Amino acid sequence: MPPRYAATWPPIWDRPPADRLTTQGDLTPALLPDLPAQVADAVRLAVTGGLHVILVGAAALSVAAFTIAWLIRETPLRTGPADDPYTPAPAATRDR
């Protein structure tokens, strides 16, 4: 028994796997073979369905970002040095 479950009462490792899912919420791939076939299929379907939605959303977001980036107007870079308004003018030289 893992140490983090040693203090739980009643002990969850004495329960069927499906009860462990609802009690602690620990779903690991090692737990799937112990589940009834219908429950294991439902878990697999839920995981793949959730990943499908995430993948489609990420693809749509990528297409939207690319389209917006494509529509941004290109501004050419400067070809020479810029006049910096914050640079002080050179001091006037005086002949002595």
Features:
96 residues, mainly alpha
Describe this structure in words.
The protein is mostly helical. It is 45% helix and 0% strand. It is built from two helices and no strands. The protein has helices spanning 17-24, 37-71.
Distance between the termini: 95 Å
Number of helices, counting only DSSP H or I runs of 4 residues or more: 2
Quaternary structure type: single chain
Low-confidence stretches: none
Structural class: mainly alpha
What is the mean predicted local confidence, pLDDT? 76
- Number of DSSP E strands: 0
Fraction in beta strands? under 5%
- Give the overall shape, derived from the CA principal axes: elongated
Order of helices and strands: HH
User: What is the helical fraction, as a range of percent?
Assistant: 40-55%
Radius of gyration: 32 Å
Compact summary:
The protein has helices at 17-24, 37-71.
Strand and helix layout:
Layout: H1 17-24, H2 37-71
